[in-house]
Please model this.
Amino acid sequence: MSLTVYRKAHFNAAHRLYKEGWSDEKNLEVFGKCSNPKYHGHNYELEVGVSGEIDPETGFLIDLKKLKEIIKEEVEDPFDHKNLNEEVPEFQNLNPTVENIAIVIWNKLRERLGPKYDISVKLYETPRNFVVYNG
Ligand code: NI
Model:
């Protein structure tokens, strides 16, 4: 049997994609508008999937109240309305692409949820651009 529980979440954040040492022109060529030196924002939509066994006592795979709280503490509180480059330590030396943000979120959730669950992170940077990371 395979069953996955999902929880959606949302955060707004600013970022700039760039590579240190490249000129603004080269960064613009590679990263487009996302390389704007003055930053810009995205409305990120997150879907977290948790797979595992159902607890026969409760009928829950995971208590969604707990999952909600973990996502709030690990993602929404530290990322929402933040400048990812300047205010979130994970991106001090890591380009905050949607790929890297999804991996950072997955790693944080893995720490909190422990090994008994499989975790899937789907992150939308725009309504049409998204990534899925399963570890
Ligand atoms: Ni961007």
Q: What stands out?
A: Strands lie at 4-15, 40-51, 82-83, 118-124, 130-133.
